[in-house]
Amino acid sequence: TIENAGSIEVAATSSISLGQRPMRDYSRGGSAVARFGSKGSNPGQFHEPIGISVINHGNRDTPVVSIAVCDSRNHRVQIMNRFNGHIIHTINIPPAPAAMLARRPSKLRTLFGVSPSLSGLALIERDGLMMAVVADTEGGRVKIINIITQEVIGQIFNDHVKAPRGVAVSPLGHIFVCDEDTGSVSLYTGWAGSNHPHGTLDTTLLLAVGMSGKGNWEFDKPTAIALNSKGHVIVCDSGNHRVHVLGGIEHGMAPLRMFGAKGSAPGELSGPQGLAVDASDNVIVADSGNHRLQIFTEFGVPIQLWQGAPGESDTMLRPTCVAVDHFTGE
């Protein structure tokens, strides 16, 4: 049920040249309970936030929850207090060199008309170390960064990773990546290697599936990826206006089901940009072109729409990413 989802944080944007880029916090019932951020480059401001993650430093009884946001055009990740938006850490990620940008595929575009600098984001804590797994779309690689020292401790770049958009980390520590250019979903050992000490990062490619296209089980600009409690891999297929559900690692990420089609009716999508999975395996989709969040069961049945109350000043405008706070239980 939706009641088990916890609260949902949304980073939304209106357009490249107009409007604020606020962070909004939604309760289980779908009403906005907090909002912070605006367009700009100062601490706590955003310029095209595309990627969000939530992590609990405490426990369920005493949660200490932080939100991390890929502040794409400011070339940084901002980590902030989930309750008041105060900045805790900032990770600065330099823009890609001009020579690298010249090799970028010209077809890469988002709903906003440009390809993002940074996009997907996941936070992980291993052996007391806080790390950020960041999709450096502009740089054509995934970077794993120590949050405290800002040291890049590992990178993923290969034939399957040329313009990464979404990243996810499994409970065991495997890293999943979806790529806008290659149309593939790839899996890496991460921190789950049995031949490595606990906490040691391994970026070995284990498996890659998918290709670019409009056909069944092909991806057109996949932009986000998430995992459910069964280990299934959920992929936001933006260009095809749909969501893919793939089997887990033990099933080779084989196709299970697809749902969604272009349109604005319940169950239809328009250029979705982000998704997340709640504690009941419901799938929350940032239905960007329709200016709403849409919630589906794990089998693709639409069960709720969130568009903001009519007349509210904070009604959603092109939400780009969504994360579920499993820790506070709000």
Summarize the structure.
The chain has 1 helix and 24 strands. By secondary structure, it is mostly beta strands. It is globular.
What does this molecule look like?
The protein has 330 residues and is mostly beta strands. The protein is built from one helix and 24 strands. The strands form six sheets. A four-stranded antiparallel beta sheet has the order 3-2-1-24, with no helix packed on it. Strands 4-5-6-7 form a four-stranded antiparallel beta sheet, with no helix packed on it. It has a four-stranded antiparallel beta sheet with strand order 8-9-10-11, with no helix packed on it. The chain is globular and about 45 Å long. Residues 1-8, 14-21 and 108-113 have low confidence and may be disordered.
Shape, principal axes of CA atoms? globular
Strand order of the largest sheet: 3-2-1-24
Q: Can you tell me the residue ranges where pLDDT is under 50 for at least 5 consecutive residues? A: 1-8, 14-21, 108-113
The end-to-end distance, rounded to whole angstroms, is: 14 Å
Share of β-strand residues: 35-45%
Derived structural class: mainly beta
Helix content: under 10%
Query: What characterizes the major β-sheet?
Result: 4 strands, antiparallel
Q: Cα-atom Rg, whole angstroms?
A: 18 Å
Helix and strand sequence: EEEEEEEHEEEEEEEEEEEEEEEEE
What's the β-strand tally? Answer: 24
> Please, how many helices?
1
